[in-house]
Amino acid sequence: MTFKSATSEADADAAILAEAEAWQGIIALDGDKTLDVYLDVKSPHAYLAVRPSLEVARDYRVKVNFLPYTLSYAALGVTTSVQSDMKRRPATPASDRKARMYYAAARQYAALQKLPFRSPQRLLDSTAANKAFLFAKQQGLEVPFLMRVCVRGWGSGWRDYEVESLERLRGTLTETGARTDGFEAFMAPDGRGRLSWRHAWPRPRPPAAPGSPTTSSTMHLPGGSWACSAGSTWR
Predict the structure, then answer these.
(1) Are strands 231-234 and 33-39 parallel, antiparallel or unpaired?
(2) Where along the chain do its domains lie?
């Protein structure tokens, strides 16, 4: 797919979201292998990985299966803890610089794809968005839904999109063309969304016998960017 330029932010958003039909066509293609791609809405590198992952599917007869995975800010070194004010708390000046570079690198890769991007003004809780992603996936609309959330969210640095809001997520599902019957029940704390979300997490594989080939790998893209923020697995 071609990364087109646009004359304004609104035009850029519209141009990106106009690719939805092409995304759906790629997702529908048969593949010789399946690549499970784990993404977390709150990671900018997940946002940046969607289109390149689709290009892999298109060019190499690979079936891409996008799945949600909730990353830990603390494990990434972005903050020492996540508290109710959702402010970043770096452990040291060095870790603060590392976190800033994490977003600076994302901004550069976003520019290469002509994707709108601003660094976030706060930490994000992506639990609801990741479950809503699975709700959209039931209808085969996970990529248009995810990209619509990310373009609106990362495009404004999450200033104009409240990713924790069920009302906002439901509205985005409607804009994507998804049916929203049963959405509230799916998203309930003890609803099917929680079970589906847990089930989607990658499972540890048993150790391979000495000398046997492995079918699990993490994929790199040209320029050194990760194909996804949590991991990718061939099967």
Answers:
(1) antiparallel
(2) 33-202+222-234
Collect contacts of 159-167 with beta carbons under 8 A, ≥24 apart. 159/118, 159/121, 163/41, 163/42, 163/124, 163/125, 163/126, 163/128, 163/129, 164/124, 164/125, 164/127, 164/128, 164/129, 165/128, 166/128, 166/132
Joined tokens for residue 187: 């998203």
**Beta-bridge partners for 233:** 36
pTM given for the model = 0.79
Fold of 33-202+222-234: Glutaredoxin (3.40.30)
Buried b (16+ CB within 10 A) or exposed e, 106-128: beebbeebebbbbebeebbebbb
Task: List phi, psi (to 5°) of 64.
Answer: -95, 130
Q: What is the largest CA-CA distance in the chain?
A: 56
In the chain, count H helices and then E strands: 10, 3
Q: pLDDT, tens digit, for every residue of 88-134?
A: 898 889 888 888 898 999 999 999 999 999 999 899 999 999 999 99
Q: How far apart are the first and last CA of the chain?
A: 25
Q: Which of 197, 217, 216 is nearest to 206 (CA)?
A: 216
pLDDT tens sequence across 162-217: 999 999 999 999 999 999 999 999 999 887 766 665 555 565 444 434 333 333 33
